[in-house]
Amino acid sequence: MSLLTNQKLKIEAAATPFAFAAMTDSGDHLVFSTTNKPWSRADSEPVFGGYGVITGGAVTPAVSGTDDLVDAAAVELFAPGMTGANTTTGKITVAADTDLTCTRGATTNTHIINSITVDSSGAYAVVAGTATTAFSETRGASGGPPFIPVGSVEVAQVRLTSVTSAPITADEIFAAPGVHQERYDNPDFTPDYLRGTLTFTSALPLIHTGSVAKKVYVRGATPIFSDLNDVKDWVPSESNDSVTSDTNYDRTIAASISSTLNAATFSLAMKDGVTDFILSLVGKLVTLKFYPNINGTAYQLTQGYLSKTRAFPVKGNPTASFTVAAERASVDFTS
């Protein structure tokens, strides 16, 4: 046990923007992280996600009716690193393309899958798989869908079963999200603003060259922290569970468990209670950083909406009690 005598509370007073940056796969293809953290939300929300189709991109048999060709409609993608992508939203709209050539097998190798993609230059491109005698669902295997280049987005697959040239039919074109098409919103993902991570609901498929997942990007800002002086009584935001019981003849059993999240709080002696800089942050979604020992490496981050209650005593210092309405519990970091 030790007495805390050297604490420090800092608050986000400004933020440093950073451009779109690729996030790092933790190895499980579920959690992706960045060194730019935590993510500020005071003035604008960060933009993040994995490469994929947002809307459009329907692939259909070629209107020209020419053998072995398909048409692709205009498509909007989230792909920040792609040539022509918007540097603010990460989105790019790729124009429709017609008469995209699909490859057929040869001799007895009848079954082949062609992947209809948008490549890193922002243009439609067809990537042909390896033909064999039957389809496979293993990426890169003979008869399976081909690996597509890193930085490309798969829009659809064309599955052919004949070596004889012919017009491609609608039942040979497949675009199921997460199977034949990479989508921005499938699988879904959850941000952790304080840890600077995105966690997907299921592992991203390893469909790109080198058996890697699609690219995941984030753009945002990191807080610039300022010291709060004359502060005391920091209480972090924490989740608390409560049990509702059900009493029966022979015993009492737990009927339900509910969780509540308390707001973080602290008190501050003010200069005049009107012009103090912290008042300009009231109503914003700010990040606070608490050190139990300012000379140590451990700290705690809390993010929430700042509100205040001021007091102006007679012949006394003005004071304020601040509340941080957090969306999630405070997070502890050892370094």
Describe it.
The chain has no helices and 25 strands. It is an all-beta fold. Strands 1, 4, 17, 18, 21, 22, 23, 24 and 25 form a nine-stranded antiparallel beta sheet that branches. The protein has a four-stranded antiparallel beta sheet with strand order 2-3-16-15, with no helix packed on it. The model has no long low-confidence stretch (mean pLDDT 95).
Short description:
The chain is mainly β. It contains no helices and 25 strands.
Radius of gyration: 28 Å
In round numbers, the mean pLDDT is: 95
Number of helices: 0
User: What characterizes the major β-sheet?
Assistant: 9 strands, antiparallel
List the secondary-structure elements in sequence, H or E: EEEEEEEEEEEEEEEEEEEEEEEEE
Alpha-beta classification: mainly beta
Q: How much beta, percentage-wise?
A: over 45%
Taken from the alpha-carbon principal axes, the silhouette is elongated
Note the gap between the termini: 21 Å
The stretches of 5 or more residues where confidence is low (pLDDT under 50) are none
Count of individual domains: 2
How many extended strands?
25
Helix content: under 10%
